Amino acid sequence: LLRGKGAFMNRMEMHAPKIWLTEVSQWRAQAGKVIVDKDSLALELPERLPVISIDSFILTDMQIHVPKKYLPAGEEYYQGASARLAGFLLNNNSLKTEPLLYSKHIELFMPKARYDVDDPLYIAEVGNVHLDVTDSTATVDTISYSPRFSEEEFTAKNNFLRGRLDFKAADISVKRLDIMKLIAGSKISIHKCTVGSWSFDYYSDKRKARDPHAPSALMPNDIARSFHFPVALDSLVLTDGKIRVRERAPGSDRAGVLSFDKVRMAVSPYATDTSSEEYGEPTRIFVSAIFQGEASVSAAISYDLQKAALDLRIDASLGKISAKRFNTFLVPNE
Fold first, then answer.
1. What's the pTM value of the predicted model, to 2 decimals?
2. How far apart are CA 185 and CA 272, in angstroms?
3. How far apart are the C-alpha atoms of 164 and 149, rounded to whole Å?
4. Omega before residue 333 within 30° of 0, cis
5. Are 123 and 146 in contact (CB under 8 A)?
6. How many other CB atoms sit within 10 Å of the CB of residue 257?
7. Looking at residue 38, what DSSP letter applies?
8. Is the dihedral of CA 184, 190, 194, 198 positive or negative?
9. What does the pLDDT look like over 230-288, one tens digit per residue?
10. Are 268 and 235 in contact (CB under 8 A)?
């Protein structure tokens, strides 16, 4: 190092480093120049830049500053993330080729964080996240989209009848995630996403009147068409799911319940990326479940999510079930 040749280390650890990430102009000038706010800055490197080589580079409890729109709810920066880099190399060649974080192997760990969403009555939560950049895999402990308020509070905050949703998923695994294209902002490309367990709860308090000027119901194809970022998802599998549909009628002291247990869903493909071989193909969904604790349910669904009009085909079957099984829904609402 003192001779100016560089620094070669087996291991380096940094605790609580501060990192600033910002959105930069898409303009990248040729011949080693970068355009920033219309000013050209020449970037000329020494012919023999001192080498920095670290076999194992560990960063813990990082403080990552990003544009506000990417931040967790109520936070000024990400806190508690860590990274493990192997084969870190900074020299003339790597500065030109710009490999991700100048490393051969990269693992990132993000703690649980909560995020504001467009609807002020809801909040999203994601974490903990383990991202293996080199192997193109990711695992997420939990993901949720939940109300900020209890059922009574949620109902009170709406002048008219409005359904309350609560979705939770755990043990999420992603394989063959094209991380470089995601970072570049070009598309989301995933080979397979598996969800180990999940639940969906829908609550409707019909003590509130219907909105006489309610907008048209938003269908999945409407949501898909409003998302303009290209997506290529080969396969999505959700296992061990629970679905609850609950309604509370005027005069009742509790909600009636319809339930689906042991729900399994297999979805493929979903492609809005025009370069994907699956682009233009309808999404196929296969579902199996136990309805009201007794009857087997299965369904094969074909849904073209890219059409403005609803294009949905369902072939379903329901096994034998006792009429008494519906008492959980009917009796509370008599």
1. 0.83
2. 15
3. 10
4. no
5. yes
6. 15
7. T
8. positive
9. 999 999 999 999 999 999 999 898 999 999 999 999 999 999 888 888 888 999 999 99
10. yes
